[in-house]
Amino acid sequence: MHPVMLLPDHADTSELRQALWHHRIGHRITDEQDGQLLWIADPRQQDELNALVERWKRGEPLVLEQTAKRPHSINTSLTSLGKVPVTALMIVISLVVFALIGIFGDQLIVNLTIVPIGIAGGELVFGTLSQTLTSGQIWRVLSPAFLHFGWMHLIFNLMWVWYFGRQIEALQGSRTMLLLLIVAGIGANIAQYMTGTVLFGGMSGVVYALLAHVWLMSRRVPQSGFFVPQMLVVFMLGWMVFTMTGVAGSVGFGNIANEAHLGGLLVGLVTGWYYSSRRLKNR
User: Where does the record place a coiled coil (predicted)?
Assistant: First the structure.
């Protein structure tokens, strides 16, 4: 978010805000000591914002004219996805894996768990992480992130991947987003494995890393363009704490990879601190 201008302290900005949202100008207004501070998400829209503010100051009605709808086509969708290829690929792989699990079932799952799983003497047997790595099955340290065991699990995770991933990839590039996926995915998976759990999966560890990264960037470098509502941060952290209690299991949420959430969160705090510090240093 970028600060633009101070508006009168007690002015009613509801019509202005409605017009800004109508024109798809991302913004927020915060109460400051000297008045109401207007922020903008994309500085390239500042001229359009200024024009609307001037009309609002003159008391002109901000007629919300219907904007011409652009024809939606496959090409436009592909162009949009092409701007965030890593985020889009994360979602596509997760969806494909979920669909294939419906076809191949456990046969696919055991090839994507963090260590191999087999049956001996009618009981489950597990390999070790060191054996897995020395045998060349390196993909296993990341692949559990793409495993989801239900529609709600899948939708919840991919919704936040799209929300946070687009910001990171648009503002910091695909290389940073790919690095975050790999480091956060591996970090979250290993954190969960260290607790003695083998059969787990999901993108939620990565989601918590993206949340922490975006939150720190928005807090330490407000002009970076990153934004996450404070209440969303409170909700996500509250949910993480809630799932760590016995209450979550007793009300039907089942087994949740809590350590993966915590591991991902720590990774995101480290990367967010590192990248925000670089921004502050280069000012």
Answer: none
pLDDT per residue, tens digit, the chain (283 aa), is 678 888 888 888 888 888 888 777 888 888 887 888 888 887 888 888 888 888 888 777 775 544 444 555 555 555 666 789 999 999 999 999 999 999 998 889 999 999 998 877 777 788 899 999 999 999 999 999 999 988 988 999 999 999 999 999 989 999 999 999 999 999 999 999 998 888 889 999 999 999 999 999 999 988 788 888 889 999 999 988 888 876 665 555 556 778 899 999 999 999 999 999 998 887 6
- Are residues 53 and 90 both part of a single domain? no
> What is the chain's Cα-based Rg?
23
Residue 87 domain-assigned (yes or no): yes
Q: Is 72 part of any domain?
A: no
Positions annotated as catalytic residues are 204, 261
Structural domain tally of the chain? 2
Are both 103 and 23 inside the same structural domain?
no
Give the whole-angstrom CA distance, residue 168 versus residue 87.
Answer: 9
Same domain assignment for residues 96 and 211 = yes
Strand-pairing partners, residue 6, are 37
Residue 170 and residue 40 in one domain: no
Q: What does DSSP say about strands 35-40 and 2-7: parallel, antiparallel, or unpaired?
A: antiparallel
Q: How many CB atoms lie within 10 A of CB 1?
A: 18
Q: pTM surpassing 0.90? A: no
- Domain of 272 in residue numbering reads as 83-282
Q: Sort residue 136 into left (φ over 0), alpha (ψ -120 to 50) or beta.
A: left
**CA gap 117, 139 in Å, rounded:** 15
DSSP character at residue 66: P
Q: Which residue matches tokens 């705090």?
A: 269
